[in-house]
Amino acid sequence: MGAVKSKRVPRAVREQQMLDAAVLTFARRGYRAASMDEIAELAGVSKPLVYLYLNSKEDLFNTVIRRESAALVAAVRSAVEPGAAADRQLCSGLKGFFAHTAEHPYGWAVLHQQARTHGEPFAREVAALRAEIVAFVTELLGAAAKEAGCVGELAEREVAGLAHALVGAAESLAEWANVRTDEGTSGDPEHPSAKDTAATMMNFAWMGLNQLMGGERWAPGGLVDHESGSCARR
Amino acid sequence: MGAVKSKRVPRAVREQQMLDAAVLTFARRGYRAASMDEIAELAGVSKPLVYLYLNSKEDLFNTVIRRESAALVAAVRSAVEPGAAADRQLCSGLKGFFAHTAEHPYGWAVLHQQARTHGEPFAREVAALRAEIVAFVTELLGAAAKEAGCVGELAEREVAGLAHALVGAAESLAEWANVRTDEGTSGDPEHPSAKDTAATMMNFAWMGLNQLMGGERWAPGGLVDHESGSCARR
Amino acid sequence: MGAVKSKRVPRAVREQQMLDAAVLTFARRGYRAASMDEIAELAGVSKPLVYLYLNSKEDLFNTVIRRESAALVAAVRSAVEPGAAADRQLCSGLKGFFAHTAEHPYGWAVLHQQARTHGEPFAREVAALRAEIVAFVTELLGAAAKEAGCVGELAEREVAGLAHALVGAAESLAEWANVRTDEGTSGDPEHPSAKDTAATMMNFAWMGLNQLMGGERWAPGGLVDHESGSCARR
Amino acid sequence: MGAVKSKRVPRAVREQQMLDAAVLTFARRGYRAASMDEIAELAGVSKPLVYLYLNSKEDLFNTVIRRESAALVAAVRSAVEPGAAADRQLCSGLKGFFAHTAEHPYGWAVLHQQARTHGEPFAREVAALRAEIVAFVTELLGAAAKEAGCVGELAEREVAGLAHALVGAAESLAEWANVRTDEGTSGDPEHPSAKDTAATMMNFAWMGLNQLMGGERWAPGGLVDHESGSCARR
DNA sequence: AATGAATGAGCCTTCATTCAT
DNA sequence: AATGAATGAAGGCTCATTCAT
């Protein structure tokens, strides 16, 4: 039913077919509800073969998570220009992120929705991925602060909080953009492209960060100059 | 094992005990992996009683979702002062949100992580909750734009995108704050309080929004004045 | 839901209400599928009361069987005139049988369909009922043979077989007549009345019996005179 | 415990073993009381295999009913000689029926006792079987009437009633013969053979029918000539 | 006379996993 | 390289039955 039956396929290829089937099935059903039967059928092979190659359901899920994690990280990393200014790096990273999640919705669903919700072994794997991305963002924010000549006003905890907020906002937008995309016509030129979504994120986040680095803080009733402008605004 | 065994309890009370046990179990294991046996044991009753009162696993999960949704919405709604300025409303709403999610981490986990990942019947319920919150935020942003004298510069889609980003950021921070809390000593006075987290969010988001309303946009290389300053900055 | 709730009813009455509910439920669902919950609800009482009065599901079913058996036997017995000719007795007995089964379809369903199909304890009870009726019929056939001056030509086994055939035919017609009745309008004057059905049975059976007693037998190719006409034909 | 354990059996064979076990179990316990565990054990396999091959208890029961129905119909059909006289056809059909039910008592019990008593899905299946047989008999009676030169005196309803009576009588005799058989020694040469039972039926029914076709009817007090002998008696 | 609260036991069904070829 | 045959274990759900009032 799934793939066309082609016998005698080399192992490496078969494994990828199985992983593809697994990604789709895990995304659609969730880890527990996905059955090895369904995955095997979708991959066009018998169940014992899945076990021969991937050992167990748990191993299979882990392999899936790792493959999708690696692909996402690679996409983001390859999108940024190493030497550029921090804001450009952030923007191009976001663009890469949105583009990849839009192109691999099932992989993203597995990472974002399924892997976190099914107990320790998997959650850790995805937490590591997220931590890596958050660290990357935190680094960029630090670099940006330095570029802007801002010295030490942003406490580490504050930076970490901002990075988490930024990543959460990006995740939320990724989902929103995908849903919007699904609704429109497939070739809809109106749907928010990765570039547009990245721009929205930058508009939302960067300018506020900029001001934060300038020492301004929000307070009920208006802005306050938290610390005298020891931090040059760009 | 769970609660102290107290025999012959009126139905209304037992039902709440069961729902409490269910929240905890669903949060820990996920919908599929949670067994009715475990829930019943945790509630200190036999399984048939759970079925007698809550009908089925699906009904139980739905009831849990609705109870937790209602509690969250009530917490947020009761936190905002209806007549106040938009930024104050947003801030107090966030504070209510962070406080509630911190106090009810399992309920929040069920809503945020589990309900969305387990098929149509539940996902819709939570999608409705999220839509309600996003709508609330969108409304606040619109009001803020009006207050700021900003007329029409922010396209509807842009506002919606911002609202989604904001909600996503808040969700991410809620999780982050909770984890931080869990790790520290239980009574840790250092852990980010709801007030602190709300302040972080406001700092991250509000100032950027403010500038957006002022017509400024981020662009590679620096800020640009997208439209001549037709929108007074506060 | 079932009966109107009337509290404080004397035991004898309540028991009959329960038995009525049980007859209906057992007929509709079968012994195993009928739940004590449904019976109790239909009787308008709580389950413990059913247990208090009728002890157990098995006892309840037995009580039902005995009540319905007794009613059927009484109906048949009271329909025949003790002193009449054998054929008249048989005819009026059949009339009583068809009339009673038509008036008490649920009771008849329990006896005919349910009680026989659910293991030893109940099957025996109904077998006894059937044996009683078969014995009654056998007796009538014997009397008829004697009346007809037929002496000993009908072997006992043959008579017993005929009685069984006759009873089976009557049961089958009872069902058929009831179904026919259900289909027609409730007051349908066309549907086969008990009298008509009894007549059909008599036409079907009696005349053949008559000839049997006359010594004739069926054989491929035509009738044969099994024994020289030592048995006067009426 | 049931069959001798023989591992690795092809599916088609296993399925028949399972169906055999199911027939026996359903006949002994009834549909509801029969457990899949018992059936599986009797078939010498594990429960999951039963589900793998037969899908569900309901499907299993349906498959059983259809297999046994088909076998019974085939036995009866193959017993009659198509071109023969109506009475010979009826007699040989009955012989086939009694022989088959005697050889397959459990199959017959499932059809006759269990399937009719367990709700719509199954009852319909068996009702169809019975209707087929009744139709066959009705046809034979009609043919016999024509052969006998009887024109139209037997109303359709009357014929249908007679056919039902005949089938009911046959069913009753089948059960009676089986019980008798069970009680006697297994190889008892005295127990009523299918041939004998068929003869009893023919004696019981055919001669009466013959007279009915001759226009005679039973009436209290004696026979009457319902219509002047327009119908030649054989 | 009557009931709300509660449970032990069992059944249908499914699933991850292995064996033998 | 690949599969048809088979199962131990567990989970959702229901039911007859009892306890305490």
Automatic annotation (TrEMBL), chains A, B, C, D:
SUPFAM superfamilies: Homeodomain-like (SSF46689)
UniProt KW Repeat keyword: no
InterPro entries: DesT_TetR_C, Homeodomain-like_sf, HTH-type_TetR-like_transc_reg, HTH_TetR
PROSITE patterns attached to this UniProt entry: HTH_TETR_2 (PS50977)
Domain of life of the native organism: Bacteria
Pfam families, per database record: TetR_C_46, TetR_N
DNA-binding region: 35-54
The keyword Transcription is assigned to this record: yes
Keywords assigned by UniProt, alphabetized: DNA-binding, Transcription, Transcription regulation
Annotated HTH tetR-type domain residues: 12-72
MF terms in GO: DNA-binding transcription factor activity; transcription cis-regulatory region binding
Protein name (Swiss-Prot/TrEMBL): TetR family transcriptional regulator
